[in-house]
Amino acid sequence: MGFSKSMVVKAIDENGESNLEVILETLLTVSEDGENMLMLDKEGKLLYLIEMGFPVEEASSAIDAYGPDSSVMELLDFIYASQMAKTAEKPLQEPPHAIFDDDETGPSTSHVYTSTNKKRKNLFDIENTWKRRCEKKSRQDHKRAILDEDGVTLRIPVPMIGFGIPNDQRPLFERKLPGAAIGPPYFYYENVACTPKGVWDTISRFLYEIKPEFVDSVYFSAAARKRGYIHNLPIHNRYPLMPIPPLTVQEALPSTKKWWPSWDKRTKLNCLRTRVAPVTQKLRDMLERCDGVPSLQTQKDIVHECKQGNLVWVGKNRLAPLEPHEMEIILGYPENHTRGGGTPRNERYNALGNSFQVDTVAYHLSVLKNIFPNGITVLSLFSGIGGAEVALHRLSIPLKNVVSVEKSEINRNILRSWWEQTDQKGNLIEIEDVEQLTADKLEHFINLLGGFDLIVGGSPWKFSIQMCVLT
């Protein structure tokens, strides 16, 4: 299965040499430094994707396109892009609001309750407990379907608009949170929408049984990005960032308009890929062999490849993947947000691939503007490149204190650089690993900063898939 030697030795030391079943269980559920999924070989990743429910053909195509060294997150994005390419012409259906529990619908809550240090610490303890239990879950637990109270499999809605999107004419959704979940402190957790079976159910259990709000960033940007969010934020009186970002590829990347053929009807990208299959030269050769306008079949073949690879037109008969600065634009970050400090180009892609879509997140966090007009104190778990911080800043919510937990040195450098470039007046406290944020240190920060107003967590890779490995 591609596990490292150190992982195997550690599993044997912990469980003894004779109990092979327990050793295998340990290898499949616990990783050294939480990164065992990165160590799976081609066969392991193929089995993982099949276990998630993807057809063998789709899983194999993704691995062939990206290569055996690609991450599961990249493979998932490729599969979703391929699926979207096949269903792009199908009409959208109304969202099945029935996926939410009956006791979650009711009068909206607009009261602001006084936060306490004890409540803040309890919330963090809950998240830590959830993390530890996910790491120890058995394969049998992971294979359970996500069920609601009626025993019906939880289905992701189409269209994926959550509790509403800007300028949506549908009736406002109402939900009633459990009393213990009413903020502050507020929490906001993001994960990829299509997770292994049981993951969303597990997360909900440890976050007050709150069901995820599924949103596709295609309604906020020029690219699809299907995510789920579990949070206790108010859901009314949200507002989008201004100015409204470009919502089509040609608006976001105007230089492509000159070269975009009329027969390529794409206006959105299916996802933002961090690796690109080497097909651009093949497509160029196909186009140059054509005498004038390509045949309908050639057009169809080229558009199909473009949808799968999210390629854009950059010249006559020339297609190319997005550059990092173009991804930054579509994701809502300042241009060159990830540039500088010696960050390699491929690392910029990786950092952006695991980041928040700022406009989407800002829409959800906009309700905090009136609650914290004088500034906010944030605990940011797995901060990445600072998507939540950028969103709050663009909402003009002052960042009084940010305790940022991020293992990647590159990501920490990016966030620190942005903090300095935007002349933030608050305090940025950096912690390299969540394991360093002990209960004593957490209590120290609570006493020092007066508690946390918002706890932001989640990276599609680091904060879920690596902790809840489906075997």
From TrEMBL:
InterPro entries tied to this protein: C5-Methyltransferase, SAM-dependent_MTases_sf, SAM_MeTfrase_DRM, UBA
Superkingdom field: Eukaryota
Record's keyword terms, sorted: DNA-binding, Methyltransferase, Nucleus, Repeat, S-adenosyl-L-methionine, Transferase
Domain SAM-dependent MTase DRM-type: 173-471
Molecular function, one GO term: DNA (cytosine-5-)-methyltransferase activity
One GO BP annotation of this record: methylation
Name by which UniProt lists this protein: SAM-dependent MTase DRM-type domain-containing protein
Location relative to the cell: Nucleus
GO cellular component terms, semicolon-separated: nucleus
Domain UBA residue range list: 39-82
